[in-house]
Design goal:
The structure holds two protein chains of two kinds.
Chain A (H helix, E strand, L loop, with lengths): L1 H4 L3 H23 L2 H17 L10 H20 L26 H11 L3 H12 L4 H8 L3 H27 L1
Chain B lengths: L2 H8 L7 H9 L1 H12 L14 H17 L6 H23 L11 H23 L8 H17 L9 H27 L6 H22 L5 H25 L8
The chains are: A mainly alpha, B mainly alpha.
Chain lengths: 175, 260
């Protein structure tokens, strides 16, 4: 990161190769749209280059990058949708349009995607970052600008709710 | 959340130590938590981006490299802060010099009160600029910004001389017009700099209070009317409205970078 901050393009290449696909995966799960995620990956890495002077030496890179990606997704939703489609807090809506294709055509993954889409943003993002991006809760807290305990409470509620939702979906498919 | 529940969360995805396994067996919350985590067990962690078309990612890569080549040296955030503070200082100095041709301080309140209120307003102007532009690990609390705004508004009103020098309407229109005119440049520069980080309403509010605070400070020093109604309607209210306008305008401006 230090070499990239000084303008070293080889260092940027290494960061891009390592993180571009995981960030794309995260954004696909967050927005429910692979094509939107592609545009957001571009904005994320462009922001990374432009704002590298804001990176605080000694802090963790991965949470910072995912914070940028999350902000880009939030801004895209805020500008692309009518205000009445946002939550009162201006957050991403808790549901994704039904006609949006899921990231994979597998039954379980579709069910999980549907269940995740029903969670509020404050619970969905910690679960995506923790379960799918392999971040610790301390890193998730960094990415979300919250305390670790606040993130744990949100993730706890999210996992509980997911269990209920997935059980209900499983029951529906069995009927 | 109990400490054991927190440790269970930290151990998700790995083997649970014996004492935590027995805790999970007796804790309903943790059973629900582990159940929710395990329900995702069959979903691959590998992101669906494996299937993403490479050309799009490569285009993003090339665009970012082009940007890096165009700007090989990063701009530290504190340099932007210095630019903003320099603009504030120039507007403050210029306005005081222009308005204070017949005397720099027109406020008829006791000098110590005038100085204390001016100092507090100056702290708000500087602190607001730092909060608006500094990269932060934690979200800026709304309560802190609201408390600072209410505090400064209160001391501005309570620190007035109580004297009415000009006819009320003339005094009000004069001060309101001056406050808006003096705020244009600081607000414009603050908004441009705010676009270099992700939009956060509370940050934009801090920037608005800070930028419009420059003209509030000039009026506090220069204006000789000190009644509560004049200070509320002609000094404090326009200041708060200008801060609100800053949030509204920033929400509509394009964002150059989504960094926190």
């Amino acid at each position: 990161m230090a070499r990239f901050c000084e303008g070293d393009s080889a260092a940027f290449d290494a960061l891009f190769q390592r993180y571009a696909r995981p960030v794309h995966g995260y954004l696909t799960r967050l927005t429910g749209s692979p094509s939107t995620a592609e545009d957001l990956v571009q904005l994320t890495f462009l922001s990374l280059v432009r704002a590298r002077g804001r990176f605080q030496a000694g802090s963790r890179f991965k949470p910072w990058l995912y914070a940028i990606a999350t902000n880009a997704a939030r801004d895209s939703q805020r500008r692309g949708r009518r205000p009445e489609e946002l939550t009162p807090e201006g957050e991403l809506p808790a549901s994704i349009p039904a006609d949006t294709p899921g990231p994979r055509d597998s039954g379980l993954e579709n069910a999980v995607q549907r269940a995740l889409a029903q969670l509020p943003e404050g619970q969905r993002i910690p679960i995506l970052l923790h379960r799918f991006e392999g971040m610790s809760f301390a890193e998730v807290a960094d990415a979300m600008g919250l305390t670790e305990s606040a993130v744990k409470v949100r993730a706890h509620r999210g996992y509980e709710r997911l269990r209920e939702l997935l059980a209900a979906l499983h029951q529906e498919t069995q009927e | 959340m109990k400490p054991e529940c927190s440790r269970v969360m930290d151990s998700l995805g790995g083997p649970l130590p014996a004492e935590l396994t027995s805790h999970v067996a007796t804790c309903e919350d943790c059973r629900a938590l582990v159940g929710g985590f395990d329900a995702l067990g069959g979903v691959p962690v590998a992101p669906p981006s494996e299937e993403a078309p490479a050309p799009k990612l490569e285009a993003a890569h090339q665009l970012a490299l082009k940007e890096l080549a165009a700007h090989p040296k990063p701009t530290p955030w504190w340099r932007e802060l210095l630019v903003l503070l320099a603009v504030y200082a120039a507007v403050l100095g210029g306005a005081l010099a222009w308005l204070g041709r017949d005397g720099m301080v027109g406020n008829r309140a006791p000098p110590m009160v005038v100085a204390a209120v001016a100092l507090l307003t100056l702290v708000l102007v500087g602190g607001g600029a730092v909060l608006a532009l500094a990269p932060s690990r934690r979200r800026l609390p709304w309560g802190l910004v609201a408390l600072a705004a209410v505090g400064v508004a209160a001391v501005q009103v309570l620190g007035g001389s109580g004297l009415q020098i000009r006819p009320p309407m003339r005094g009000m229109l004069g001060c309101m017009g001056s406050e808006v005119a003096m705020s244009v440049l600081p607000l414009a520069v603050a908004l441009v700099l705010l676009c270099r980080s992700a939009f956060q309403p509370v940050r934009a509010l801090a920037a608005g209070l800070s930028a419009a605070g420059v003209s509030l400070l000039v009026l506090h020093l220069h204006c000789s009317d000190g009644t509560v109604s004049h200070l509320l309607s002609a000094h404090v209210l326009p200041w708060l409205v200008l801060a609100g306008v800053a949030v509204l305008v920033r929400s509509r401006l394009p964002t150059r970078s989504y960094a926190p």
